[in-house]
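Hello,

Our lab assistant flagged a job as stuck in the queue for most of the afternoon. It eventually completed. Since we weren't sure the result was trustworthy after the delay, we are filing this so someone can double-check. Below is the sequence as submitted and the structure that was eventually returned. Let us know if re-running is recommended.
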Amino acid sequence: MTKSALITGITGQDGAYLAKLLLDKGYKVHGLVARRSSDSRWRLREMGVEADIVYLDGDMADACSVQRAVIKSAPDEVYNLAAQSFVAASWDQPVTTGIVDGLGVTHLLEAIRQFSPHTRFYQASTSEMFGLIQAEQQDENTPFYPRSPYGVAKLYGHWITVNYRESFNLHASSGILFNHESPLRGIEFVTRKVTDAAARIKQGKQQTLALGNIDAKRDWGFAGDYVEAMWLMLQQDKPDDYVVATGVTTTVREMCRIAFDHVGLNYRDYVKIDPAFFRPAEVEVLLGNPAKAQRVLGWKPKTDLDTLIRMMMDADMQRVAKE
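-- returned structure --
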């Protein structure tokens, strides 16, 4: 029988890659989409799947619309990717972030509990929950110490998922995903900000790139690899939580070097440090330990950072040239 899946946040980077993965596996894919005046489906078009999805109007802040989406889609699997996911914006919109990234998870879990308890649920947790790290390398047992409204809201979403799993015996799993990027990443995120700027500078359309803490370290992977881990979690007999990461940490500075080198430029000539881009509470380093995901799910990242940044640079060079 054809499986049915509901993806919240389907118009985002992860949603587009996951929709393609599930469609290729023969799923009927439903997407919860909030009404927007701007074009929000461009990533799905880029992946060639826009016409293959059943769209359902809804908003994670509105429990009734979430319930209707669950009832209409009758899902075997629900992937909750919806979030206000830009850390910097969470300082400007802490209440909205808390509602969407925290309370919205409860709306979805409660809808599943009441109307579709057989459904398997995936929660998109984040390495930002570790924040002020309590261990050199973070795994599923590392204590959390979030350093932003985004991290705090996501921590609520993570723990409410654990609570519903343990209290109501739901098949509910969380993927604690470290930074994952792609050509579909939003321009406000540092990786795309760098690759877009490098492409523009190379083509004479921009002069400099302003960044904040370029010595911050992150564990970066490819979103196309990470959505496979999401799917694998919901194929397990038992629900659980998994760190999804590469196990390698790199500075923003090094990431800039890779991007600018790809187009024959020296990043030092163009990158300027702007204190306005520093966070109120900095997260200096994140480094994931994906051993459990490798052992239980059989998952490993396929794409290293050099390959990922070069992929993004090539896409941005082509896009900027057409502007």
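-- support follow-up --
The delay was a queue issue, not a problem with the job. The result is valid. The CA atoms of residues 42 and 195 lie 19 Å apart. The first helix runs from residue 13 to 24.
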